[in-house]
Fold this protein.
Amino acid sequence: MNGEILSILIVDDEALARERLRTLLAAHADVRVVGECEGGDEAVEAIAARAPDLVFLDVQMPGCGGFDVVATVGLERMPAVVFATAYDEFALRAFDADAVDYLLKPIGEERLREALHRVRTRLGAGAAQLPPSFMAALEQLGAASAYRDRFAVRVGDRFTVVRTADITWIEAADNYVRLHAAGGAHLLRSPLREVEGMLDPRRFLRIHRSIIVNVDRVRALTSWGLGEYLFELSDGTKVSSSRRYRGPIRDAFGC
């Protein structure tokens, strides 16, 4: 498709994310945004009506998410896809890089340029259609998408959004939990057991009946013997584990 205008549909439930992507795409003279959708159901209809060459598709949206859109439209009718997601590259290894591309939020200019180039290369080679093997990859990543990437915490009559990637550790507070994240602590009206089920176990580890830590925010841990450890976290906090969780701790850190 060298020299041809690439028609693009933007699908994301966050208005700011759509605006950022639209602004970045405006710098490319060889693309044209033919529509924006804030939900999966709307996207399915827009794909059928507008037949875009490429869809920038948010992975996680309320109701009909990005994977649901692909399944509903069908592989044979789905345009080229670039997924937008907050998940890291480790979680995205399930994708075949030759079949689909992805952008990590917040989207950067250089990464977007690379994605557009790869899409044009695939379209030029007649490889725009997603292969059957993509569904298997999609199912693998679908499990990861079930985990929360943010929490809305009520503060008075408004909500503060806390991204899970910004959480350093979580502690039980009676029937609530306290999320310790960049910018301070936030009280969430859910029990620790329920919150634990919302988190990706590859990134969050329960080390005590009342404590969960973000493994990427663990700076050091010291053995206290008998399967107990002292964790030093990136914000300077020190928390202790209990023997009950020594197995998962050793599996996670190889200690």
